Amino acid sequence: MFWMVLPLTRYAEFSGRSRRKEYWMFALLLLMMAVALLGTSIRVAGSGPPNLAGLRLASSLLLSGIIALAFVVPLVAVQVRRFHDQDKSGWFVLLNLIPYIGVLVVLVFMLLDGTAGDNRFGPDPKAGERQPVS
What we know:
134 residues
């Protein structure tokens, strides 16, 4: 649970490095929330008088959209820190804006391990866990 909420505690921190575990646990949290919000929206739309179903669905989806917007900044921040962990500029996050291909490229980068040891963006977040290469 610690790794899931760590990006929220580092809400708009675009400096430093983040490890893969932090990014992917936060992504899992966002996925679980999206599924829960979608399920709630569908359930709310199906309950009550049928003539108000569209209004209930629209208001539920609007609330879901507002909640999703609140998580945009921490998602971008943790992606920037992941790029920093690989000794790349945080501006690589803008690859997400390229239709279709950009998201896949960023996904691949999020799967890659960071550089071992310190780099220009800070100390290695896995410093105590890495095994020395012999």
